[in-house]
Amino acid sequence: MVMLFLAACGGGPAASPTATGVAPASGAASGVAETANPSAAPTSSPTGTSVTVDTIVETVANDLSVRQQPGLYGERLGIAPVGMLAWVVEGPVAVDGYQWFLLTGAPEDAGVPSACLRLASGRDVDCLNWIGWAAGETPSGERWLQPVAIECPAGRDVATYLSLSPHERLYCAGADEWELTVYVPPLVGGRGCLPVWVTDPGWMTGECTFTFPQPVKRQFDEDTDLQMFTPPRLNTCGDSGACWWDEFKGEWVLVTGNMDHRVARTCRPVLAGALEDREAGPPPDTDLVVHQCRLHFVVSSVRPGTAPASAAVTFRLILRGPVPDDASFAIQDGVADGPQHAIYLCSYYGGWPACGRGEAYEDVWTGAPGSRLSYTIWRELDTDGRREVLKRGELVVGPTDQVTSVTYQF
Question: Which of 33, 144, 145, 170 could form an SS bridge with 61, CB 3.0 to 4.6 Å?
Fold first, then answer.
């Protein structure tokens, strides 16, 4: 299979923090004053080597244990590999001669092996979305957690927002206000949610919030990187049944808002209404729910906006044969460093043997001049996802409309 990427990406106790079982950790943070900013936004990454709350750290020890409670005999959640990124929620706490920190996963790229916590047997949690305690250094001062250097941009616009991971946004901007010029697509994708546990307040429930404005003009809300959460005062619906967001469909708007909203510190897990009388598993950790709420972009105002300067790039892919009998082709479209979605063009697995004989696939993207489109062509070696990369490249949006062709010859 050949694919194209066009992008705009319960163990028992042990006596060592690095030995190879999530139960709830500490309680949730208390609420804050209505106008308080619970986190100050730094202008640069930490200059020292100390680990502090509300920073991103990297594991630099082999097989670092993550535990339910701080201490050598806390029940083990899993093992953090070298290079794992985590957010510091709380700490340090001195127990058993070690300095312990409450961490939660902060992956930049969920696809790399070091992004995923190696869970202990019987732990039914998301290996990317966990919370637990880990020792930051040994009694002799050897560091097992290292602060990550982050270059924090000054801008608070769409380009800056999309260039950062959610945790980098929280670190760099805190509760600072963003001004995002976005497009409200006329059509929305078919989505739904049926969670067992939801967040109180309900409008902060991430898996059931489907407001996805787009960074470029599109018919559908396919890019989900700009998920927005709307407080009740802005999200009331009139007698017509149309909510405020509907009036802007098909238009550019200027949205102001911030992460680390004051309500985030009050978030807690509750059973979904339809399940209140039914048996459910244990609730998510409250500290983890609070942290997830802090990552949400909460809207404070919306008003008509002006479309940014842009140019259209017509990307034309030409695949020339003869091609291997077991090959398939697909394309993943998106803005460089942005969201991607796959469209299969033809597949030998699917019984379409006439592809790749000089036919062209064409797609049009609109982006700001100077923005990048990147692509990767690869062959899928088997149905388990093993791939052989054949060609990579990058396109830059010029000042005017352009047509760019890429040919791959087998």
Answer: 144
Sheet of strand 360-367: strand arrangement: 360-367, 311-320, 402-409
Q: Is the peptide bond before 92 cis (omega within 30 degrees of 0)?
A: yes
**Whether residues 25 and 133 fall in one domain:** yes
Task: Look at residue 400 in the predicted model and tell me its pLDDT.
Answer: 76
Length of the chain: 410
Query: In terms of residue numbers, what domain contains 389?
Result: 311-409
Which one-letter amino acid corresponds to residue 223? D
Residue type, 21: G
5: CB partners within 8 A, 6+ apart: 331, 332, 340, 374, 375, 376, 377, 378
344 and 369 part of one domain: yes
Number of domains in the chain: 3
Q: Say which CATH number the domain at 383 has.
A: 2.60.40
140 and 178 co-located in one domain: no
The answer to whether residue 24 sits within a structural domain is yes
pLDDT at 34: 25
Q: Does 214 lie in the same domain as 141?
A: no
Q: Is residue 153 part of a domain?
A: no
Shared-domain flag, residues 18 and 141: yes
- pLDDT single digits (tens) 313-349: 666 666 565 555 555 555 554 444 444 444 444 444 4
- Same domain for 293 and 171, yes or no, is yes
CB 204 within 8 A of CB 267: yes
Looking at this protein, which amino acid is placed at residue 16?
Answer: S
pLDDT tens, position by position, 210-229: 899 988 887 788 888 899 99
Q: Which of 395, 407, 393 is nearest to 318 (CA)?
A: 407
pLDDT, residue 260, reads 98
User: How high is the pLDDT of residue 273?
Assistant: 73
Asked whether 312 and 296 are in contact (CB, 8 A), the reply is no
Cβ count near 187 (within 10 Å) = 11
Here the tokens at position 100 are 């312990």
